[in-house]
# Entry
Amino acid sequence: MLEIRHATIVKTAEERELIRDLSFVMNKGDKFALIGLEGSGKSTLLKWIVGDSLDYVDCSGEVITKRHRIGYLPQSIAGEYDDMNVLDFLLKPAPDSEITAESYRKLTHLNKMLQYVHFDEQVFDETKTIRQYSGGELVKLGLVKLLLDEPDVLVLDEPTNDLDLDTILFLEDFIQKEIRPILYISHDEALLEATATGIIHLVQTHKRQRAVTFFVKSTYMEYKQKRKDMLDSQEMIARKQRSDFKKKMERFRSIYQSVEHQQNQAVRNPSLGRLLAKKMKSIKSTEHRYQREQEQFLDIPEREESIDLTFTSNASFPNNKDVIRFHEEELVVGGKVLARNLDIIVKGPQKIAIIGKNGSGKTTLLKVIRNHLIDRDDIRLGYMPQAYEELLTDEMSALDIVLPKGDRREEATIRKMMGALQFTREEMEYSQTLLSGGQKAKLFLLKMVVEDDNVLLLDEPTRNLSPLSIPVIHQMLLQYQGAIIAVTHDRNFIENVFDKIYVLDATGLHEI
# Structure
């Protein structure tokens, strides 16, 4: 139903391969997960498959659909649709296209699809614009738009972004039961473990200058284990080859030096000299044979490094000192009261997770808490918004995100730290508009590390990070000695890092 032949994608600005010679075939029931580090080309590959115009890469290869229709859920549907009412969004193929009479027939299935994705029909308002819906609601509306088109193949870019836990579980069930082939990117390891029947792994080696692609029909956990076992075995063999060769060469050099010394002593004995010359010729022949053997050695596998990032002890927050004693009578968005009687007390160095249904006001609550803390001179506040553009401008480079005030005294150190986050030298100079969501997330975290922030407000911090980076972030924040208040639906994150969990609903915040 979908076949990709020899896909190769090269980033034009750097002449750097993102993907080399990728081929795979998807049939009914296949659910292939696309994984790889941030900036490895995952979203770019999906955009190429669905026919988007891409001016920053050169693409070659074939996408063969045999007249099957592809339905595409992009990573973000905000921006160009922001001021459009929700019905226009659902019915227009593109922001500037017209709605046809045939499109209006889709509305007969609208209520069914809203129920199918667990969208609260009381929240659905055809007069509201896209910007008036929450991030999680937008993901659900994107799924509704996709499903109303009745595609044959589903292509989903980070479908779990911004979804509440109930909807993530729905999405797992949806992917598991769906007959149509699904190609998707997800940072949610639990969802990958529950749904993937095949793994497409985009890897970049040689300091991200060479692309290697792996495609295996297996579950996510099986693939992780098989890949680890393969790399362990290859590394063991490669290192043994080198160890054995080193011992062999030490013996060889000893023999070579001995014969060479004898030759120097045999200048007055022509007969012995001839014998030694013959022996030296044999030794040099052996040396050439050893060199040929060395050329056949297995490469020591270059393991795909995730990221290297750690807070120092300077980011600690005093035990039991109040971070915030928060009370709010009402949480209001757009004139609508979302919650009442909100109370929370956070002391250092507690780690607090806030969960709740989509549209319950979690992001708004985090912004209100930020407003309470931002002018405090006894804390160093780090903030990662859900919409990164809230704190970014188009003119900012990747480096500017970490050094926004133009202070270049620590530039060499910052560049080294960005390298540990798998940024190439060229990417450090990129406009932030060219970075992937995961790359921006890493830079926000790096900024907090550089500034030794001891209170962190994080809105879905793992939502764009790859499954390869997320365990490192979990460990980093688990060991962090400051206080954290985070909105998250990442199940493993909640389980591994947080001391307390609060649910936000219409009646307030409730510890569970």
In short: The two ends are 46 Å apart (CA to CA).
